[in-house]
Amino acid sequence: MQRLKTRAQFQATMAGETVARTAHFALHRQALDAGGAAAVVPEPGAARAAAPQLLFAVPDVWLGAMVPKRWARRAVTRNTIKRQIYSVATALEPQLPQASHVVRLRATFDRKQFISASSDLLRQAVRAELLQLFERAAARPSPSSRAPA
Q: Strands 25-31 and 40-41, how do they pair?
């Protein structure tokens, strides 16, 4: 599994479809073409004559995690959620299609229920919801596997 690193990779993936949602998370997916690239963009800051660079050089499962400060104020909470996202995705990698994926936190976890920023209770709740998210995404076929109409 490859990790998304650049802003362009995240933007290209977010431009794809939302394949699953839960109360706190959304999963976005962008199918890769046969060569493994979703899009070709010029390298930032390079001259216009420079050769374009592939966003996704390797045809593999690509994953990124977006946990905004708006929904998780403390860094320890954001890091805990990101670790759970990557852990669950790694465990379920064989079920994921070769595409780029972004798991996005879209709502806050109630601070009254989860008092500690990195409690075991929060980890279990995040993990359970991520399993549900990936289960819903697996039930929905990827755009590249759908037959053309």
A: unpaired
Segment 91-137, tens digit of pLDDT:
999 998 899 999 999 999 888 888 888 888 999 999 999 999 999 98
Give the chain's domains with CATH numbers. 2-142 (3.30.230.10)
Q: Note the pTM of the prediction, 2 decimals.
A: 0.80
Q: Please give the Cα distance from 30 to 38 (Å, whole number).
A: 7
DSSP codes of every residue in 103-141: EEE-SPPPTTT--STT-HHHHHHHHHHHHHHHHHHHHSP
Tokens standing for residue 52: 């374009």
- Among 25-34, 49-58, 104-113, the minimum mean pLDDT is found in 49-58
